[in-house]
Model the fold of this input.
Amino acid sequence: MSHNLYLYPKFIRLWHFINAVMFLLLIVTGLSMQYTAPDSPLIRFDIAVKLHDIGGITVSINYLLFLMGNMVTDNGKYYRIQAKGFTTELKGQFRYYIWGIFKGEAPPYPISKDRKFNPLQKLSYVLVMYMGMPVIILTGLALFFPQVFDLLGLGSLIVADVIHVLMGIVLTMFMLIHLYFSTFGRTMFSNFKSIISGWHESSQAPG
Ligand code: HEM
Done:
């Protein structure tokens, strides 16, 4: 039996849409600045810099929407990790992904109103949203306002730059894996529809 759960409030959908579009812009402009030769760039260097700045500032302001939304609505509860038993839950979910799913087993931690994310999803979203995003935003700000960074004596700008690029690579990899796992819904496109409509389609009985 299939039923629908309203899991993605408006502010999350708005944040997510802006974030996803801006991430694509940041990845393309970031790759162009980092890896193409100055005389034959993918995007002309000064244009790539401008677009990357616009994307970075937009993602940063938009991130405040995510943070505040998660503070004032109950969406934040889905990001709270209960240490007790969490390792067992991670192992259960991992086993499902490498074994159970191919055997047609039911998911060990089905999505419900109380559990929007399975344990591996929860861990990756928490790491990305509460560690990865602050690191890439703060190092991006350091590169955008080098004088302020210098004035505050926060250290070497080259170190900030290296961390920024490495985190960019990590978050790009996250996004690719995220896209792949997003196809594991009731149908291949169910989860993509959910993040647009707000409604999660589930083939499990309400849990
Ligand atoms: C084209 C790019 C993207 C697509 C198509 C996409 C797709 C999706 C889909 C289908 C969902 C709902 C299923 C789920 O809960 O896992 C989702 C949720 C989510 N995505 Fe993405 N995503 C994209 C980019 C990103 C990026 C760049 C980030 C973070 C850096 C991100 C972070 C999240 C988070 C945190 C949620 C859960 C939001 C909540 O319900 O609280 N996504 N995404």
About this structure: The longest strand covers residues 3-6.
